[in-house]
Design goal:
By secondary structure, the chain is of the alpha+beta class. Helices cover 19% and strands 27% of the residues. Helix 2 crosses helix 3 (19-32).
């Protein structure tokens, strides 16, 4: 109810509390919400991003577990609602992505471009002041992976292709939600990360320059899960 009222009354509240304070409180409430709360709130979902949930009577129900008990990502209308939500019509441009069992969530407010985009994971602000891409994904149910601004002095740095936010060479944030460890991975002069791929295998996080390098099992960077830092 707090989230619903904060959202529905945003036109009245922003002039009273200011845009920054409103956004911080909105992110806190979104981070505490379950997917079905966001369906009732009226955000667009992974099925139809251009409109509010059209079946809240279904999506507002308790989620149904998979027969094998493993987590899975939902696309509605389905009990428990979708696992991701996109707001295309408010001044905040909200993105919310849940991991497979809904224990972790990433909330992004994107209005203003990559230099002003904001990210919270499980209610904690992450990488304030960094340039962020306009989307990320959950990996292995505990790592949130998102591209961030790459180094200006990289020899291959330049303008990116149409439709992407960041410059050509990107860095990566791999946020370990269980331990709340942010890994900021910056490519070196010989690591040309235009379309990097991250995977977790055998307790090790691996970064590949692209899908071809992943298929060939030739990572540019690797470090053990739970390491204090990755560089």
């Amino acid at each position: 109810m707090d989230l619903y009222l904060w959202w529905q009354k945003r036109n009245d509240l922003v002039p009273l509390v200011g845009e920054e304070r409103y956004q911080v409180r909105l992110a806190e409430l979104l981070s505490r919400a379950a997917p079905r709360d966001l369906a009732v709130m009226g955000l667009g979902c992974s099925r139809r991003v251009d409109r509010a949930c059209r079946a809240p009577e279904i999506c507002g129900q308790d989620p149904e577990p998979r027969p094998d008990g493993r987590p899975y990502h939902r696309s509605g209308p389905v009990p428990g609602a979708c696992s991701s939500f996109i707001d295309c019509y408010s001044p905040h441009e909200i993105r919310v992505r849940f991991n497979g069992d809904d224990r972790h969530s990433a909330v992004m407010l994107l209005r203003g471009g990559p230099s002003r985009a904001l990210l919270w994971v499980d209610g904690v602000p992450v990488l304030e002041g960094e340039w962020l891409d306009n989307g990320g994904h959950w990996l292995d149910e505990r790592f949130f992976v998102i591209r961030i601004g790459g180094p200006d002095d990289h020899p291959e740095q330049g303008y990116t292709s149409i439709g992407q936010w960041l410059y050509d060479i990107v860095s990566l944030l791999v946020y370990e939600a269980e331990l709340r460890i942010p890994y900021v991975l910056v490519p070196g002069p010989t690591e040309n990360w235009r379309d990097p791929v991250v995977e977790v295998r055998d307790g090790t996080v691996r970064v590949y320059v692209d899908e071809g390098a992943q298929a060939a099992s030739t990572p540019d960077r690797e470090f053990p899960v739970g390491a204090p830092g990755a560089g």
